[in-house]
Amino acid sequence: MDSHMDRRTFLRRSGAAGLGLAPAISGLALLGASAEGRSRAVTRREVWDPGYGPLVDSPDIPGIALPKGFRCSLVSKAGTPMRGGRPVPNGFDGTAAFSVGPNRVRLVRNHELAHLPQIGPIVESPVYDAQSSGGTTTVELVVAPDGSVEKVAEFPSLAGTNTNCAGGPTPWGSWLSCEETVVGTLDEHGEATGLEQNHGYVFEVPARADGPVQPVPLRALGRFVHEAVAIDPTSGIVYLTEDRDPSGFYRFLPAAPGRLAEGGRLQMLAVAGRREYDTRTGQRARTRLPVAWVEIEDPDPAEDYLPWTHVSSQGFAQGAARFARLEGCWYGDGVIYFDATTGGNTGDGQIWQYRPRDQDRGELSLVFESPSRDLLKQPDNLCRSPRGGLLVCEDSGERNYVRGVTRDGRIFDFARNDLNDLEWTGVCFAPGGRTLFVNIQGAMWVGDGSEPQGMTFAIWGPWKAGPL
């Protein structure tokens, strides 16, 4: 998504569009057109060649495998100094790219760090919780005509948050950073945790911020185990995933589109006429399931200790659908795409789409289900490519790939991590589509050099040779 539209322009356009019918769906709406039969029968020997060719060891970064002809550079590494002298934190996770001027791109990147007294927050001030080490950093780059990049700045942009896993870009040029936890100042036994604030919120970070922003929790979006968000730019509705099993798929109806801090309503997806529908197994691709939405009456309770089930149980009690660990979420072509990391009959993952019809109606359908971990295992962060495909990061604890999924549901290998068994994260394209960015997460702390470090890569090359 090209997320450089300013807030005023977004508000004007969304006000004209209202909260009505989404535009005609194209591109990835075709995804899964033949996935039902394929997902039962395809094997590793039958993996489709999209035109890029087999993966080979990158001459630029040995240990990163890419199709021949693609180039790769290391943009950022944990432990190296940022502006101000502090080290780049580890735990690289969800990321988005924003245009901030001619040939200028900023990456706003999450750091999935929790309560780590040995390293403290990313900066001392402003900080949400001085006992929490998560947050975001921003990397500014110049993008050359061939897609290669040069880093010009790197600095903290959000501090004192906890377990910032994924999130999503807004149409008005900011990053929504999600806390994947509900830890608070007290534990389940009523004992102090050492934290100064309760967690489980979404925070907004403008891409053009030149330093740490004042952290403001968007409480109306709920306090739960957040993973990723995606915003429909025609309506301003925010869609949210939850990384637990069972989990719910949510939407937030803002009181004022584009101004999330002004509140709104949180709802959870249900399948109309099929109470407590379980999507985790037994699904058929391309089946269109009509959707209803149920209200979450208490999205942000005042309790210092909160069970992770507090919000989801409200939806399930009203018959909401159950998913298996929802993670990545992205908007494209009028459709919201999201994945269930452990969903499917083999437990290797599912990719879903939600197609809004109007304010209250929509359709849910399965677009791909992995029949084998050789094809796709535990999908996590994902993004839409400029030409209409999906790129999906794996988090399997084994040799991890970035997989491509075409408009018609075919899957292929685009990148492989041969450096270690750490997950890929934060996959996203620069506006204009010449450059892909992706992270290797690194350890969940800044180590002494013996631990694998978080890394961000830029990838560019002959995109037109294939479907991305």
Keywords:
single chain, 468 residues, mainly beta, Neuraminidase, 9-stranded antiparallel sheet, 6-stranded antiparallel sheet, 3 helices, 37% strand
Number of helices: 3
**What is the H/E string?**
HHEEEEEEEEEEEEEEEHEEEEEEEEEEE
Poorly predicted runs are: 15-45
What name goes with the CATH superfamily? TolB, C-terminal domain
Category by helix and strand content: mainly beta
Q: What is the mean predicted local confidence, pLDDT?
A: 90
Distance between the termini: 14 Å
- The CATH topology is Neuraminidase
Under CATH at level 1, the class stands as Mainly Beta
Notes on the protein architecture:
This protein is mainly beta. The protein has one domain (7-465): Neuraminidase, CATH 2.120.10. Helix content is 6%, strand content 37%. The chain has three helices and 26 strands. The strands form five sheets. The chain has a nine-stranded antiparallel sheet, covered by helices on one side. Strands 1-2-23-22-21-20 form a six-stranded antiparallel sheet, with no helix packed on it. Strands 3-26-25-24 form a four-stranded antiparallel sheet, with no helix packed on it. The longest helix is centred in the N-terminal third of the chain and has 11 residues, at 7-17. The two termini are 14 Å apart.
Question: Would you kindly provide a brief summary of this structure?
Answer:
This protein is mainly β. The chain has helices at residues 7-17, 35-41, 310-317, and strands at residues 55-57, 64-67, 71-77, 92-101, 104-111, 134-143, 149-161, 164-169, 174-179, 202-206, 226-231, 238-242, 250-254, 264-271, 289-295, 326-332, 335-340, 350-356, 362-369, 379-384, 390-394, 401-405, 411-417, 424-429, 436-440, 455-460. A hairpin with a 7-residue loop joins strand 12 (238-242) and strand 13.
